[in-house]
Amino acid sequence: MFVLAEMMDTVRIQPWMFNNKLDTAVVDVLNRKLANKVVHDVGLCIALHDVSKLEESFIFPGDGASHTKVQFRYVVFRPFMDEILIGKIKSCSNEGVHISLGFFDDILIAPDALQQPSKFDEAEQVWVWEYETDEGTHDLFMDAGEEIRFRVINETFVDTTPVGPENGHDHSVDDQESEAKKSPYSLTGSISEPGLGLLTWWNA
Q1: Are residues 32 and 60 located together in one domain of the fold?
Q2: Do 99 and 194 sit in the same domain of this protein?
Q3: In whole angstroms, what separates CA 158 from the centre of its chain?
Q4: Which residue, of 44, 77, 110, is where some domain finishes?
Q5: Count of domains in the chain?
Q6: pLDDT digit string, tens, across residues 132-184
């Protein structure tokens, strides 16, 4: 679920931080810049693990800050495909079941990846697994707050960097709002196999 990503960046240290040790200032700047941020094709950055190399620092004309090229390793949240995770149901909608891990909420289990047959209860706003037994069909509700075990089957990175006007025309407000709503990193899960789904289904 968590990996160490090797990264490189040029760290800009403001003059008022010069009274700190260089390595301390670098750690502070990197964590301010990356912690809880998504790096495209890398994952959700959690915390700095270590700094492997500090190169020479430079101060450029007209800029009182120092610039230091740094190689470092960062703890990143990026599950591997087919990894089994346990989260909590955040909500349900026609799109599927939305899952939260507490620190990461952009996880969706689509209707075709649920235990089958399943239906969406519009009144209760929950998905229901119509579990069939010899005694008949039992409705198993996927209520918000319930712990759920799922398999990661896909990940999606979206470049949410703001873009300038094209051909001299500004983007419309609707386009800008649509881009703002996109999650830079999201996961798709599945519970369509034995042992997956609500923990209470299998622990009873």
Answers
A1: yes
A2: yes
A3: 11
A4: 77
A5: 2
A6: 887 778 889 999 999 999 999 999 999 877 766 655 555 554 554 555 567 89
